[in-house]
Design a protein that fits this description.
- This protein is of the alpha/beta class and 470 residues long.
- It contains 13 helices and 13 strands.
- The chain has a seven-stranded mixed sheet, sandwiched between helices. Strands 10-11-13-12 form a four-stranded antiparallel sheet.
- Strand 4, helix 9 and strand 5 form a beta-alpha-beta unit.
- It starts with a helix and ends in a 21-residue tail after the last helix.
- The N terminus and C terminus are likely disordered.
- Bound molecules: pyridoxal-5'-phosphate.
Length: 470
């Protein structure tokens, strides 16, 4: 991987005094011959990391960058805890279990005490587990109807979804499932019940509905899709389950829109994934996968291992995994409660909506998502019909030069022609920072409107600018 070469070569040694120690091989790919003093090595790496961006100005990522001192302390205290080793760390295991049940309660599981679920490294792993459970359940249904998986025309199951994050493309490719991704069409940028119904058949293992679409931040209509599938079942007998990708939304909707029906209140919603490290506000490295009821997770996917000192059931793609993020997720649940999460998410949403109004006033931009009803933040495009001497990529580049990461990217099929720019508002982004950003955007537009021979970046090669899925 040569991705970080530029920075690697540009990195400077710690100081003139220490440069003799680490200037040469600390920045090569050659495995070091000799040992060194921890302090010197720490200082060198610390200084290299200074060249990374400032996470508070990174408005591209969904992941939390807000860390309380107590979280740092707990992370420090749990650096040696391996999540898989439940016999050695029974308290950590109990904390994970409590988090699963708290989430089941938050997501209105009919039987929160008997819900089954697990922590993961993030939503991607949780999505894989959700998809696998759907595939195994479908196989079982097929077998029950006397149609084994390898009977003619029955070889390849399919999964229906809207504009999803790349983890679902990975799931379908890695686990050999046909992806039936509803393409965007004109102004329809989300999944709709009608489009779902057009693609469902007896080989459909499920429908993935995203609560907080990566590209536009909006929530897809879980309730409406669920009702359409109920009707389909009455008419055809096809009983197609829903998995909700709530990577962001599952930690937003319960606090901001408690009456929105998207979770286990809908019997058709069989599983949900969420990223603890996004709006769950935990440090990076934790996600959650929950199933409505025990039988929604096929037993064949659970392995028992006895070599860690007890008989342990495991259901995950990883084996060893740090425990600190889960412990800190638990800290956040206890520390914030519904009240704290609600306050934080509402403030983030309000800032997003405020910025949407102000960015619309700047002139060249048409707001596509104004911060209401979905993920805190906003996105916009250049106004149709007007001609500007710059693209959104130019805006992103200029802002980047000034330390702000505000990505511009093209939409997935069929709307690759539509380029948008997106801001995510996370906890820690203040109104003052919003004003600073607005000022920077005004200056950026003024600068770009008077290019003075500045080379213009075209929309070509948009693929390499697609930073949407983080
Ligand atoms: C809708 C959606 N699903 C899944 C993911 C993957 O999540 P993670 O980064 O936690 O693996 C993302 C990431 O942005 C997302 O937006």
């Amino acid at each position: 991987m040569a991705l970080h070469n530029t920075r690697k070569l540009n990195a400077k040694p710690t100081s003139a005094v220490e440069s003799d120690v680490l200037s040469s091989d600390a920045q090569t790919y050659v495995f070091p011959e000799v040992s060194r003093e921890p302090k010197t090595v720490y200082r060198t790496i610390h200084d290299q990391l200074v060249l990374d961006g400032n996470s508070q100005h990174n408005l591209a990522t969904f992941c939390t960058t807000w860390i309380e001192p107590e979280v740092k302390q707990l992370m420090d205290e749990s650096a040696d805890k391996n999540m898989i080793d439940k016999d050695e760390y029974p308290q950590t295991a109990a904390i994970e279990e409590r988090c699963v049940h708290m989430l089941a309660n938050l997501w209105n599981s009919p039987e929160a005490a008997s819900t089954i679920g697990c922590s993961t490294t993030g939503s991607s792993e949780a999505a894989m587990l959700g998809g696998l459970a759907l595939k195994w359940k479908w196989r079982k249904r097929q077998r029950a109807q006397g149609k084994p998986a390898d009977s003619p025309g029955n070889e390849r199951p399919n999964l229906v979804m809207g504009p999803v994050q790349v983890c679902w493309h990975k799931f379908c490719r890695y686990f050999d499932v046909e992806i039936r991704e509803v393409p965007m069409e004109g102004d329809r940028l989300l999944l709709t019940p009608e489009e779902v119904l057009k693609r469902c058949d007896e080989n459909t293992i499920g429908v993935v509905v995203t609560l907080g679409v990566t590209f536009t931040m909006q929530f897809e209509p879980v309730h409406e899709i669920s009702m359409a599938l109920d009707k389909l079942q009455v008419e055809t007998g096809l009983d197609i389950p829903i998995h909700v990708d709530g990577a962001s939304g599952a930690f937003l909707a319960p606090f901001l829109q408690p009456d929105l029906l998207w979770d286990f209140r809908l019997p058709r919603v069989k599983s949900i994934n969420a990223s603890g490290h996004k709006f769950g506000l935990a440090p990076l490295g934790v996600g959650w996968a929950l199933w409505r009821e025990k039988h929604d997770l096929p037993e064949e996917l659970i392995f028992d291992v006895n070599y860690l000192g007890g008989n342990m059931p495991t259901f995950a793609l990883n084996f060893s995994r740090p425990g600190g993020e889960i412990i800190c997720q638990y800290y956040n649940f206890l520390r914030l409660g519904k009240q704290g999460y609600g306050k934080i998410q509402a403030e983030c949403s309000a800032i997003g909506a405020y910025l949407a109004g102000k960015i619309a006033e700047l002139g060249p931009f048409e707001i596509i998502y104004d911060g209401n009803g979905g993920i805190p933040g906003l996105c916009w495009k250049l106004k149709d019909g007007a001609s500007y001497p710059f693209t959104l990529y130019d805006v992103a580049d200029r802002l980047r030069e000034h330390g702000w990461l505000v990505p511009a990217y093209s939409m997935p099929p069929n709307r690759e022609d539509l380029v948008i720019q997106r801001i995510l508002i996370r906890h820690g982004f203040t109104r003052e920072m919003g004003e600073e950003l607005l000022c920077e955007m005004k200056q950026t537009i003024e600068h770009l409107q008077h290019p003075m021979g500045r080379p213009r970046r075209s929309d070509a090669g948009v693929g390499s600018h697609n930073h949407s899925g983080r």
